[in-house]
């Protein structure tokens, strides 16, 4: 009845509008035909999104890694399953993007200092995980499958290469900077490069391209391309990030660099995954691990591109070949056993040589066991090569055996990595809970100038302890004497901007807006209410000639709290800094907040991948080196002697335009306070006005708010009348 009413309405309006009349019968409206496979792009994309959405939900209840769900879903909906979806060009495109994304994120999230420290281990593991599969692969192919030497070598190279399919599991647990992960990623680059080199040589043999000049040209092209990416990509990236701060432009720029590196690598005859991995390595220092840009890159990859790739891998797997009998089942069993056993032996030998833990061995085995990218490239190229006798270099049995091997190795890899990651994460959580004596960290960012919000939040993100899931506090204080709707609206916008910047890095922010007697009083009261441990503020801009360098807000704040205060001025984005120069006064090691600020800047150097250079007296340097060596050995550091604190002129030769100068100061009465601090403002204005700057006042014992005098009942406003007199004199002379 409903369809009849709709039909009559259509006819009525069509007649009134002068449209061409048409007949719409009741049966035509109910007619519905479904043709498989679905070829309409809208419905293909919809079904893929449904798989990405529900596969983790269903398999999470069964404690099965999500990656397996994507691959199995691809098997079900593919042409060898229920033939629901056609593997069209979208799977080719998004699948290739997802494959590049996996390799790119692996290079981007790698701890470069840890990788440098373990580069020998990565080289050893890379050689083992290449040579052992090659030896076992050639032996098994010739003795068990009766294949020729060329076929056996190509088949063995497929065992040697592997794809970091399970890397998203490591990333989800926050373990991407483990030693075992860095070793495996470095070994992956080595073994994949060697396996693809074998593929290029065999492919060239049947094209008649291999001669003496072939090797020379291939080597020269790879060396030139590697130099081009390593030398120019970081410089181009640093220039772009300094010039353009728009988040969308930065995201698109990074993707463009990834595909440029991949395309150049394919241009010289190698696989694009090596270019994507190399692009991730060189952009590593420009994209901090905890930053809005990193969060966007991971989100897009894990939400769309990588699942698309995994589903596409599942769609080419023909499980029915296992049950058809004949040679296919034997080939699949031999390939799966050899690939898995050789990778486990390589991980076991590496563990024994370097006395690693069993969990590290399992992590290395889990990450290196999955076969997908280079394996697919090798089997497809080998299947297309026709030998002189008219047979294919890799026959149909090898093709079917390869896709079955991909399925089982991906399943084994996912389970092994998930199990190892869970055990390591549980142990780290236990160690964190044991350290109950460590103070809970709470950072406060007073926002007033919208131009400094991004840099202050980014500074907080790189010094914040990632293991403590505390939210940042953004504060807007409105002076009681300056009430206006404009001030309230501007403060609300500043708080919203702060929350947006931090939320882009997946860090929660609590926004607080309050009225108070003055700005300093509002900050101090908020610190007490929320148990704030650190305050990050922007450097004051002088309003007139009688105004002080730091301003009355900073001076009153220092007098009103004993907590650590950081006063920052950035002339460029935080992630583009190349070095942190820290000037430390004598006896700074005796201050209560000494260990805290050392930890903050070591964490900052590790996040940004930049070197931290300490300048201090010999006695202070000894304490600094002991702390860094004990707890933060992975941070790149340097130590130089600064005997005379009275004159910071000698640091002008050390601080460049892309460096951050950090000056550790002290409050009057502090152990490390010297009369030289009285000249600090003039020295900074004279020598370092064109440099990014951070002045830090460390924690001290006692709370100034508890010491109240009759002449100063608020304890932090003693200079207010003198400032008013100075401003009046200045205005009088100005007339």
By secondary-structure content and strand pairing, the structural class works out as alpha/beta
Kindly state the percentage of residues in helix: 55-70%
Tell me the span between the first and last alpha carbons: 88 Å
Radius of gyration: 32 Å
What proportion of the residues form beta strands (DSSP E)?
5-15%
> pLDDT average, as an integer?
78
Which spans have pLDDT < 50 for at least 5 consecutive residues? 1-27, 543-547, 706-735
Strand order of the largest sheet: 3-2-1-4-5-10-9-6-7-8
Count of individual beta strands: 10
The major sheet is characterized as: 10 strands, mixed
Q: So what's the overall shape?
A: elongated
Annotation field: number of helices: 26
Structure description:
The chain has 735 residues and is α/β, with parallel strands linked by helices. The protein is built from 26 helices and 10 strands. It has helices spanning 2-16, 26-30, 41-61, 66-77, 89-108, 112-117, 119-143, 149-160, 167-172, 179-207, 212-243, 247-267, 272-282, 292-315, 327-354, 358-369, 373-384, 396-434, 453-463, 485-504, 519-530, 551-560, 594-608, 618-631, 680-687, 720-734; strands at 443-446, 472-479, 509-516, 534-538, 564-569, 579-583, 611-616, 637-641, 659-664, 692-697. Helix 5 packs parallel to helix 13, helix 7 crosses helix 10 (179-207) and helix 11 (212-243) runs antiparallel to helix 12 (247-267). It is elongated, with a radius of gyration of 32 Å. The protein starts with a helix and ends with a helix. The relative contact order is 0.08. Mean pLDDT is 78; it is low at 1-27, 543-547 and 706-735.
């Amino acid at each position: 009845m409903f369809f009849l009413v709709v039909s009559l309405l259509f006819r009525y309006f069509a007649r009134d509008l002068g449209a061409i009349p048409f007949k719409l019968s009741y049966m035509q409206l109910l007619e519905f035909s479904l043709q498989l496979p679905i070829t309409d792009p809208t419905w293909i994309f919809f079904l893929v999104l449904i798989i990405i959405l529900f596969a983790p939900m269903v398999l999470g209840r069964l404690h099965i890694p999500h990656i397996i769900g994507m691959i199995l879903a691809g098997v079900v909906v593919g042409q060898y399953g229920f033939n629901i979806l056609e593997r069209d060009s979208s799977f080719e495109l998004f699948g290739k993007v997802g494959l590049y994304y996996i390799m790119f994120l692996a290079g981007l999230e790698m701890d470069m200092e840890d990788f440098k420290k373990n580069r020998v281990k990565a080289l050893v593991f890379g050689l083992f995980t290449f040579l052992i599969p090659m030896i076992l692969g050639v032996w098994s192919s010739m003795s068990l499958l009766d294949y020729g030497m060329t076929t056996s070598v190509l088949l063995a190279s497929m065992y040697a290469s592997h794809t970091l399919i399970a890397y998203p599991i490591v990333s989800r647990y926050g373990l991407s900077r483990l030693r075992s992960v860095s070793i495996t990623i470095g070994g992956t680059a080595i073994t994949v490069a060697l396996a693809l080199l074998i593929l290029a040589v065999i492919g060239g043999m049947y094209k008649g391209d291999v001669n003496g000049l072939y090797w020379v040209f291939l080597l020269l092209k790879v060396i030139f391309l590697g130099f081009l990416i390593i030398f120019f990509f970081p410089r181009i990236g640093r220039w772009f990030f300094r010039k353009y701060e728009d988040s969308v432009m930065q995201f698109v720029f990074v993707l463009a660099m990834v595909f440029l590196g991949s395309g150049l690598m394919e241009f010289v005859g190698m696989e694009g995954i090596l270019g994507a991995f190399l692009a991730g390595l060189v952009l590593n220092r420009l994209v901090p691990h905890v930053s809005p840009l990193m969060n966007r890159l991971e989100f897009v990859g894990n939400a769309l591109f990588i699942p698309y790739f995994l589903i596409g891998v599942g769609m080419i797997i023909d499980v029915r070949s296992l049950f058809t009998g004949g040679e296919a089942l034997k080939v699949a069993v031999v390939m799966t056993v050899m690939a898995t056993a050789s990778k486990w032996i390589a991980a076991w030998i590496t563990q024994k040589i370097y006395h690693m833990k069993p969990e590290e061995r399992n992590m290395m085995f889990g990450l290196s066991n999955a076969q997908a990218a280079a394996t697919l490239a090798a089997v497809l190229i080998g299947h297309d090569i026709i030998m002189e006798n008219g047979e294919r270099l890799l026959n149909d049995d090898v093709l079917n055996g390869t896709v079955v091997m991909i399925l089982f190795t991906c399943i084994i890899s996912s389970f092994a990595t998930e199990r190892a990651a869970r055990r390591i994460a549980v142990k780290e959580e236990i160690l964190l809970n044991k350290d109950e004596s460590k103070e809970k960290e709470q950072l406060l960012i007073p926002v007033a100038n919208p131009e400094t919000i991004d840099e202050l939040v980014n500074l907080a993100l790189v010094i914040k302890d990632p293991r403590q899931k505390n939210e940042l506090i953004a504060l807007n204080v409105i002076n009681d004497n300056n009430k206006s709707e404009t001030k309230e609206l501007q403060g609300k916008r500043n708080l919203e901007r702060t929350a947006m910047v931090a939320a882009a890095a997946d860090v929660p922010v609590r926004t607080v807006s309050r009225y108070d007697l003055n700005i300093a009083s509002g900050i101090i009261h908020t610190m007490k209410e929320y148990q704030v441990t650190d305050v990050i503020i922007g450097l004051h801009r002088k309003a007139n000639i009688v105004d002080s360098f730091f301003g009355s807000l900073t001076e009153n704040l220092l007098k009103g709290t004993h907590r650590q205060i950081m006063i920052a001025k950035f002339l460029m984005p935080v992630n583009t800094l190349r070095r942190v120069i820290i000037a430390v006064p004598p006896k700074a090691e005796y201050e209560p907040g000494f260990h805290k600020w050392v930890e903050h800047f070591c964490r900052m150097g590790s996040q940004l991948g930049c070197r931290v250079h300490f300048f201090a007296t010999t006695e202070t340097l000894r304490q600094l080196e002991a702390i860094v060596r004990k707890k933060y050995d992975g941070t790149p550091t340097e130590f130089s002697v600064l005997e005379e604190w009275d004159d910071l002129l000698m640091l002008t030769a050390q601080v460049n335009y892309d460096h951050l100068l950090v000056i550790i100061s002290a409050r009057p009465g502090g152990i490390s306070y010297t009369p030289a601090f009285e000249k600090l403002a003039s020295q900074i204005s004279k020598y370092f006005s064109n440099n990014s700057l951070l002045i830090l006042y460390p924690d001290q014992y006692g709370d100034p708010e508890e010491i109240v005098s009759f002449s100063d009942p608020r304890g932090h406003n003693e200079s207010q009348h003198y400032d008013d007199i100075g401003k009046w004199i200045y205005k009088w002379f100005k007339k």
